[in-house]
Amino acid sequence: MSAASDHLVILDGGLSNALEDRGHDLSDALWSARLLRDAPAEIAAVHRAYYEAGATVATTASYQASVTGFERAGVPRAEAERLITSSVRIARDVRDEFDDRPAAAPGTRRLVAASVGPYGAMLADGSEYRGRYGVSRQVLRNFHGPRLDLLVSAQPDLLAIETIPDTQEAEVLVELLAEIDFPAWFCYSIDGLRTRAGQPLTDAFAIPTIDQVIAVGINCCKPADVQAAVETAVAITGKPAVAYPNHGETWDAVARRWAGTGAAPAAFAPGWIEAGASYVGGCCRVGPDDIRQLSHLCGT
């Protein structure tokens, strides 16, 4: 994938909600990562559903997957490492299945993006929507570095650095991306024109400007907040923009559920694309039907 996108790329939607729709309880701290151990075929089925809906990118089930998180759940380190890399293998297998179909559109290239969620996701206390964890940069490096190495070793097409709530964690991740020299998109979780931790996006988007970051944007925010953030991302970085918000509800970390009312992302997408978004899709609560609608709207 090049650093510049001359066409629109349709991303997938939320993994957890699609798994819940298939009857899985994801209320424990491992969230969707638990199914890497307990029901990997179900994860494959969700990747398949999004490709069928028109997505050309499958985002792996590694957002909440970390050696630390698995060990806290009683999973031995070696098995935890295997499960993390299996997230890429599952998505690659489904991608290859689609690419081998005789009816595959000429020139279509489906991709696998290895999800890298924030440190706060492992804490499972909602802090990925607040940031400022109160830990050192070295703690963040020690957490993210080995996971990035594991995911890259499984050979995804790129990394999806996503739902990053503050600039401290962004700085650490950008340093690591430069060291491993692997392509990634980089997305903040935002509230208006600020990160979830309250830093201005003009400052935040100035961080992931290295060559390894091929696109910059936002995810897991309200659809109505996307367009202005995309405009800011493009103005600051000059890179293609990524936009995949949630359905607009608010995460209740105590009850561990989404609350409020939402809105389908497809209704907002033309504005994102006009603002410079080259990669569009959805996050939490956005399902295959939403991606199908988005794909049809965009004529892909």
Automatic annotation (TrEMBL):
Cofactor(s) required for function per UniProt: Zn(2+)
InterPro entries: BHMT-like (IPR017226), HCY_dom (IPR003726), HCY_dom_sf (IPR036589), Hcy_S-methyltransferase (IPR051486)
Keyword Transmembrane helix among UniProt keywords: no
PROSITE patterns cross-referenced by the UniProt entry: HCY (PS50970)
Regions annotated as coiled coil: none
Keyword terms, alphabetized: Metal-binding, Methyltransferase, Transferase, Zinc
Record-annotated Hcy-binding domain positions: 1-298
Record-listed Zn(2+) binding positions: C220, C283, C284
Gene3D superfamilies (alphabetical): Homocysteine-binding-like domain
Protein name: Homocysteine S-methyltransferase
Protein's organism: Kribbella karoonensis
